[in-house]
Design goal:
Number of helices: 5
Radius of gyration: 16 Å
Helix content: 40-55%
Shape: globular
Oligomer: single chain
Length: about 160
């Protein structure tokens, strides 16, 4: 399915400020005005990758939406070069989550603005839980990337069983 229509216009990507700041300091490799950190220590290349993982975490754990209106915009997703470029797989998953949560009729696709509003509310719900899970299982001897990988592998295994 062609999902490019979702980013034909710009949409704010948002996270609560406290979680966004914590993620930037700990798990995001590219940070404003700072050198890039190695992926072993900062497994999410950009903030929007952490944002997306937070949505997946919220959806997997069936967390209720959180009001994201008071959260902070960190980048826009959209068609221009300065926008975050979400790949087709990310957009497809966002659309599937939106159809599941917003559309009683699967033959009617939700509007792009509604998809991103839902995505931001799920990111706000999932981000604190995801970052807490990462640090509950972290230790000084294991790279954070391996911790994140293990957390998602264990979550997938729970789903299959």
């Amino acid at each position: 399915m062609d999902v490019a229509f979702l980013t034909a216009r710009q949409h704010d990507l948002r996270l609560p400020k406290s979680v966004k700041d914590r993620a930037l300091l700990t798990v995001v490799a590219h940070q404003p005005n700072a050198p890039r950190r190695p992926s072993d220590d900062a497994p999410f290349r950009r903030m929007y990758h952490f944002w997306f993982a937070s949505i997946v975490w919220a959806e997997h754990n069936d967390l209720p939406q959180v009001d994201a209106s008071k959260s902070e915009m960190f980048i826009k997703a959209g068609p221009t070069e300065s926008d975050a470029q979400l790949d087709a797989a990310m957009l497809e998953l966002l659309l599937l989550i939106a159809v599941r949560r917003l559309s009683p009729d699967v033959n009617t696709l939700p509007e792009p603005a509604a998809v991103f509003k839902l995505a931001n509310s799920l990111a706000a719900a999932g981000a604190p839980h995801l970052i807490d899970a990462i640090f509950r299982q972290s230790d000084l001897m294991e790279p954070t990337l391996y911790v994140v990988t293990r957390i998602f592998q264990e979550a997938a295994a729970r789903t299959r069983s």
